[in-house]
Design goal:
27% of the residues lie in helices and 16% in strands. By secondary structure, it is α/β, with parallel strands linked by helices. Strands 2-1-3-5-4 form a five-stranded mixed β-sheet, with helices on both faces. Helix 1 links the parallel strand 1 and strand 2. Helix 1 crosses helix 5 and helix 2 crosses helix 3. It is globular.
Length: 190
């Protein structure tokens, strides 16, 4: 499949490798080292570097796919594709921390800093099982359901990315093999 002439796609892993299932995004990016995405897709682990991601979103990408955990009320390990509402460029309420990653704050900052619209942003999200203990500074290690979702996430990216390179406005669905059946299948949500 060939990519659209001006399509530039960013696949960004986000999350803290020291905080339980929050390490999902970086772990998926590591797994992509063994199974690279097609040319035209720029893959990068941003970890907790929110400012870095905000500025990168302004580098002329057509589409950005963030890989992260998100609590959506599904069974742990469930993958969903989310298209968040993007901020309109109004001043951000609070800038992201230099070493923190709140995707909503990152998108708000990028919208505020940029001269034009942000790229289309999709989030390939995994339902976490283990949440960090606020009393602990470090809680390494993915839960079993989230670790088991890494392979399906890589497969989902190998389906999504070629479709998005060919048509950045496409909304390729996740296949049933990548979604959990209960509660209701997690499809695209705004």
């Amino acid at each position: 499949m060939t990519s659209a002439p001006d399509a530039r796609l960013l696949v960004a892993g986000v999350g803290n490798i020291f905080l339980a299932d929050d390490a999902f995004g970086p772990e998926v990016i590591r797994a992509l080292d063994r199974r690279p995405l097609p040319p035209g897709a720029h893959v990068r682990d941003f970890g907790i570097r929110g400012l870095d991601l905000a500025y990168t979103l302004l580098d002329g990408y057509t589409t950005a796919v963030l890989v992260d955990v998100a609590v959506r009320g599904h069974r742990p390990g469930t993958l969903s594709l989310i298209e968040p509402d993007l901020p309109d460029g109004a001043p951000a309420a609070a800038p992201p921390e230099a070493h923190g990653m709140d995707p909503a704050k990152v998108l708000a900052l990028a919208a505020h800093l940029g001269d034009g619209p942000l790229p289309r942003v999709l989030v390939l999200a995994c339902e976490p099982a283990a949440r960090p203990d606020p009393e602990e500074d470090i809680d390494p290690g993915l839960s079993t359901p989230v670790r088991d979702a890494i392979g399906p996430a890589v497969q989902a990216l190998h389906t999504l990315v070629p479709a998005l390179l060919a048509d950045p406005a496409a909304t390729p669905p996740l296949s049933r093999q990548e979604e959990s059946a209960d509660p209701p299948a997690a499809g695209l949500a705004r």
